[in-house]
Write a structure and sequence with these properties.
Helix content is 79%, strand content 0%. The protein has 204 residues and is mostly helical.
């Protein structure tokens, strides 16, 4: 069941990401590409969960899960919110961050090697700097940015911004309850992706 739920979360997130990219191709509004990339990262992290649930955790699955779920999703979400608020500097900053995150996820040593069936605790396998420190800064900054921008504009766009806040909360709850396993995390991912997508495209 964990494999099925994680795979479903990957498919749902990827489908929603593709629709945002399609909308971006028509409108060329920069926030849509950032939000689409955020949901694509959701999809890739869920794909890593499905892989690990089916074949067991190893260093490769852990690196993919940590990169897309731990390092990229929230910062891309926050960048989209800033671009929506017309903060153009967010684009080059997030591009530099993404490059740094990829480099860290690929090169950082994992010790001891990851194995087993449960979602690994990053603190047990990665030193604090740079991998965990980068994830902490990226997640806190991205999440707070998305929430603050949404709350600031909630009078102007009450439905969409409320849905975005709800999606952020669902994602945070899913991370807090990682002990539920891949299936439990996947359920929260589906809920979060659905709420975020609805908030991104809502006209109100």
């Amino acid at each position: 069941m964990d494999v099925v739920l994680a795979f479903a979360a990957a498919l749902v997130s990827l489908r929603l990401a593709a629709d945002l990219i399609r909308r971006w191709r028509k409108r060329r509004t920069p926030e849509l590409i950032a939000w689409g990339a955020s949901l694509a990262a959701f999809a890739a992290a869920s794909g890593a969960l499905a892989w690990a649930a089916a074949a067991g955790w190893d260093d490769r699955a852990f690196r993919a899960y940590y990169l897309f779920g731990g390092l990229l999703t929230a910062p891309l979400l926050g960048a989209g919110s800033l671009l929506r608020a017309r903060v153009s500097l967010a684009a080059p900053v997030v591009l530099v961050y993404v490059g740094l995150a990829i480099g860290v996820a690929v090169a950082v040593p994992i010790d001891p090697a990851v194995k087993g069936s449960g979602i690994p605790d990053a603190a047990a396998h990665l030193v604090f700097f740079p991998a965990r420190a980068l994830a902490l800064v990226g997640n806190v900054t991205g999440t707070l940015t998305a929430v603050v921008v949404a709350l600031t504009g909630i009078r102007r766009r009450p439905v969409g911004n409320s849905l975005i806040v709800g999606g952020v909360v669902a994602a945070a709850v899913g991370s807090a309850f990682a002990g539920l396993g891949a299936g439990g995390g996947a359920v929260f991912t589906i809920v979060a992706a659905g709420l975020l997508y609805a908030g991104f495209v809502s006209p109100r």
